[in-house]
Amino acid sequence: MVLENQANVIAMMTREIEDGTVKCHRYWPISLKKPLELKYFRIFLENYQILQDFIIRIFKVVEKTFNIKNIVAQMREHRCGMIQTKEQYHFCYKIVLEVLQKILALD
Fold it and tell me: Of 11, 45, 49, 55, which one is least surrounded by beta carbons within 10 A?
């Protein structure tokens, strides 16, 4: 719902537990180092600040989809001019396919 509505702020107006009763289930990671792994999304805790009456948390939500265009775009951000010819695209697809097949073989 957050991604569908392009929300950039979530306000939780309760504590997780109040008077021994669970009021809210945790939907964020506890650690800055380890994201929360969901079926279709990965949620990263990028930063947090504990104040007297509330906590501010900065999240990054990443959809677990595979998109070769995004992979190539990310590669080009780090190295301009990378993957431009037809042969380079074929090689990139081949490598990504091999990696995905190896990951599936581990399951």
Answer: 11
Report DSSP letters for 54-80, one per residue: -EEEEEEEEE----HHHHHHHHHHHST
Global model pTM greater than 0.85: no
Long-range contacts of 62-69 (CB under 8 A, 24+ apart): 62/35, 63/3, 64/39, 64/40, 65/40, 66/96, 66/100, 68/92, 68/93, 68/96
Instruction: Walk along the chain (107 residues) and give the pLDDT tens digit of each residue.
Output: 777 788 888 888 888 999 999 998 888 999 999 999 888 889 999 999 999 989 999 999 888 777 777 777 777 788 877 777 888 888 888 888 888 888 778 75
Q: Residue 80, by phi and psi: left (phi above 0), alpha (psi -120 to 50) or beta?
A: beta
